[in-house]
Amino acid sequence: MEKLSLDSIRRDSIGKIFDIVSRGGSYTRAAIAAETELSVMTVGKLTDILEKSSALIQEKRESESVGRKSSAYRLNDKLGIMVFDLTGKINKIYIFDLLLSLKSEHEFELENCSNAAAEAFFDFTGDGEQIIGSVCLLPDSCEPDLYKRFCGLYGHRPELAEVNSRAAAIANASRFDASSSIHIFVDGGNVTGGAIIRDGQVMRGSFGHAGDIKRLSALGYDLPNTIAAASLVLDPELVRVECRNTDERDRLRIQLTDVLDTLLSDYEFQLVVESCDEGRSAAYGAALLMRAKWINGLA
Questions:
Q1: pLDDT band of 27, cuts 50, 70, 90
Q2: Could you read off the pLDDT of 197-243 as tens digits, one per residue?
Q3: Cα separation of 97 and 117, whole Å?
Q4: What is the pLDDT of residue 249?
Q5: Neighbours of 144 (CB within 10 A)
Q6: Helix axes 113-124, 146-154, angle to 10 degrees
Q7: Alpha-carbon distance 45 to 14, whole Å?
Q8: 63 pLDDT tier (thresholds 50, 70, 90)
Q9: H/E element holding 253?
């Protein structure tokens, strides 16, 4: 747990303001103060920080008072995040804006990643846009030197690197009103990855292994018992299982509902089983993590 300090309080307050304006549209200081329960003075100081960093754009609009205009703030959609996705058969570069809308998509060969990144960069920044950071999205199981090789070919390290399942978990956790959730990824009945999300953060543990649910199945647990074991520790509000296709989804919905009603009869979590095309992508989650890192740095 982070030690309470003026910096942590300011960072938390900036995060609250950003959460409001990231919904889209524009907001006055009074509207932001009402939703965040911060004072108008505090909101004014923090929106100044966000505006100076180019995260927010101030707009003037007509006020209810005759002859006066009020200031409103919206996210700067000319700031972008570059995601290098190495998880599929074809490598891709995605660029998202601060609202996490996908702006462009490019395919690339690993050996040509530097040129491909330059092409994607200039394609996005043709009218004053800027890239605030980049993320490398890696497979859950990959060659140990894949990231090192990518960095060497790219020419430097991206601001963030994350594995597919954790990025997909953070992307989809924000779809549900749950403070704690378990996310499990299944392909052909096999657990391929997993993550635990608590208070909007990926649980990593002291050495980065917390939430590695795939290891439970490696110990001989089947999927229902893997979910049960993780749930006994976390007591989550949500358990989400993501499958490759709708046939597997429909089968697992029936199986898991029946078995978990017996294994965890006194637990009250929401069980969601869906195919991968029903949720948000790991690339979206990678952009979300990069955006949060950038905003935290502004405090």
A1: very high
A2: 998 889 888 888 888 888 777 777 888 888 888 888 888 999 999 99
A3: 16
A4: 92
A5: 7
A6: 60
A7: 10
A8: low
A9: helix 246-263
CA–CA distance, 82 with 173 (Å, rounded to integer)? 21
CA 131 to chain CA mean position, Å: 17
- Biggest alpha carbon–alpha carbon distance for the chain: 72
Token pair in block for residue 4 = 């309470």
Which residue reads 């304006």 in tokens? 21
Place of tokens 């949720």: 279
* C-alpha to C-alpha distance for 106 and 99, rounded to whole angstroms: 20
Distance CA 237, CA 234 (A): 9
CA gap 122, 111 in Å, rounded? 19
Residues 145-160: pLDDT tens digits? 999 999 999 999 999 9
Residue 293: both structure tokens together = 């890192």
Structure letter (DSSP) for residue 281: -
Give residues with Cβ within 8 angstroms of 14, minimum separation 6: 46, 49, 50, 295, 296, 298, 299
